[in-house]
Amino acid sequence: MRSKMPGSTQSLQLYDLSLLRQTIDRQEDVQRMVELFITSTPTILANLNEGFQYGDADKIAKNAHQLKPSLDMLGISSLHEKIRRIDNPCKVDQLTDGELRTIVEEINLLLRKVFDQLYEEFGLPQE
Questions:
Q1: Domains (range + CATH), the chain
Q2: How far apart are CA 78 and CA 92, in angstroms?
Q3: Which of 15, 17, 63, 121 makes a 20 to 30 Å CA pair with 27?
Q4: Which residues of the chain register pLDDT less than 50?
Q5: First-residue to last-residue Cα distance in the chain
Q6: Residue 92, Cα to own-chain centre: how many angstroms?
């Protein structure tokens, strides 16, 4: 992970685009994939949060499962284990409410930080 500029609120980069760049040659296409991630992930995250709010293990697992490929492709390794702990309804049911709450909160927090870093790196306007 590389360090951010002095004075930045985040000290470490939370993603690694090397796999994405190996898969996609053109920088414009990499940026397009990043933009797609930034625009589509909030809906998936909102659905995951709604599943948590209503205690719907199927909805939590479905949306966690949808996040997995993007998180892997963008090298967001800090969420690797957390997503895999909730990507199946049976796994969700094995967690205590506190464990599940912690995982969902960490996913939300880290993804907000990832979005901020991606906006900054790619010079994208924040919505």
A1: 18-120 (1.20.120)
A2: 19
A3: 63
A4: 1-10
A5: 26
A6: 18
What is the structure's pLDDT at 34?
97
Helix ranges restricted to H, the chain: 18-23, 27-53, 57-73, 80-84, 89-93, 97-122
Model confidence over 69-87: pLDDT tens digits? 999 999 999 999 999 999 9
Query: Residue 24 has what pLDDT?
Result: 94
